[in-house]
Amino acid sequence: MTQLRPLLTCIAAFAVTLAAPVLTWWSVGDLSVHGYAAKDLDYAVQPPRLSPATESLLGALALGVMAVGGATFVIGILRTWIRRSWLAVLALLVVAGAVTGWAWRVMTAGVIGANIGAGIAVLLGGGAVLVLVSAAVARGAYLVLHGRTSAESKDTSSPSSADF
């Protein structure tokens, strides 16, 4: 079981990263112009045709994954299954996911005329996601390549903390 703990913590971090855009997409909700029939609206990207019940189910599942995965990741850090410095990598990826979920709602909003917000979402959101993911990859690579930090190398009580 001791060998599985870092793996479970990594799976939880991966699940939280994937749930972040879905949770944001659900939280933001439909941004379409109200008062017009759907056939009269213009779309930069056609939104998926989901029932309100399906949207609520996806949002609730994403919220549950975020809660359980986030708690697992925090417990992993507190119990030294994974190094605290990985929290920055997870935070960058979660924010990138949140920007992605927001941008998807903006791009799929039904409007009258041109969806200027879609262009802004692609330019600013795409750039932000690129920077955030690049920073997460760089930080992750640094943590993997440089192993334990000097403060962590003094702590020999938990040999599993060297795994990540």
Spell out the key features of this protein:
164 residues; mainly alpha; 0% strand; elongated; disordered C terminus
Tell me about this structure.
It is a single chain. The chain has 164 residues and is an all-alpha fold. The protein is 67% helix and 0% strand. Helix 1 packs antiparallel against helix 2.
Strand percent estimate: under 5%
Percent range for helical residues?
Answer: 55-70%
For this structure, the quaternary state is: single chain
**Low-confidence spans: pLDDT under 50, at least 5 residues?**
153-163
Number of strands: 0
End-to-end distance, in Å?
Answer: 16 Å
The SSE order reads HHHHH
What summary fits the major beta sheet? Answer: none
Which structural category do the helix and sheet elements fall into? mainly alpha
Give the overall pLDDT as a whole number.
87
Number of helices: 5
